[in-house]
Every structure is written in C-alpha cells, then in structure tokens.
Amino acid sequence: MSKIRSVCIVDDASGMRKLGVALLEKLGYDVHVAENGYTALQVIRDQRPDACFIDREMPELDGLRLIELLRGWREWGGKPIAMLSSASSVFDQQTGLISGADLYLTKPFTRAKLQDALLEMDELLE
Length: 126
What we know:
Elements: E1 6-10, H1 14-26, E2 30-34, H2 37-47, E3 51-55, H3 63-71, E4 81-85, H4 90-98, E5 103-106, H5 111-124
Parallel strand pairs: 1-2, 1-3, 3-4, 4-5
Helix pairs in contact: 2-3
Keywords: Phosphoprotein, Two-component regulatory system
Protein name: Response regulator
Pfam family, one: Response_reg
C-alpha cells in the first residue's frame, strides 16, 4: 500500500498544474497546488503533503531554491521531491538532483511517468 496519499504540485504554468491535478486525482491522490515557490511554502506548511512535484523555473523563488529551503526545513522531514522541467540536459538534471531533488522529470509528463515517479518516491519512504 502506498505511503504517499497527498501530493503538492508547484508550477507557475496553470496548464501544467491542471494536467498534474487531473492525472494525480485519477490515480487516487489528494492534490494541492501552488503557482509559485512562496505560495508553495504556505501550502506545504498548511496541508503537509507526503511528496512534492516542483517546477524548476519559476519567477521570484525558483524550484532549485525552494527545494533547498524544504531540505533545510525540519517539518518537511526529508519527504520525497521530484523536480519538473523542460530543461533536459545532463547538466540541468544534475543541478536539480544536487539541489536536493530525489527525482528529475522532464516535461511534458505523462500519467505513466507520474505513476513511476510516485512508486520510486514511495520506496524512499521505506
């Protein structure tokens, strides 16, 4: 049985948020959304999701910095984070992982990609 029941999607593109919500809700997850890094901090504090999908490139507080903040936040407790990005070079992926992401998914994502990522994230909680 999955340990992850709720997920937060952080992305400044409304279309990506809507797609993520639709796919994750069909898979049975409770989904919370934030349109930027600052809003994400509030949503995560209030909703306490089990995992996050965070866009790399957002104005003001980007995904790299948001992940660094979450990793230093005791309340987050090392829960899994997947970075989402259209940047797919090895350098981009390594930068995302070095910032603290557990996984790096390139956009556009599919239901299968999200499902695989959630299975991997669930294993990290064991």
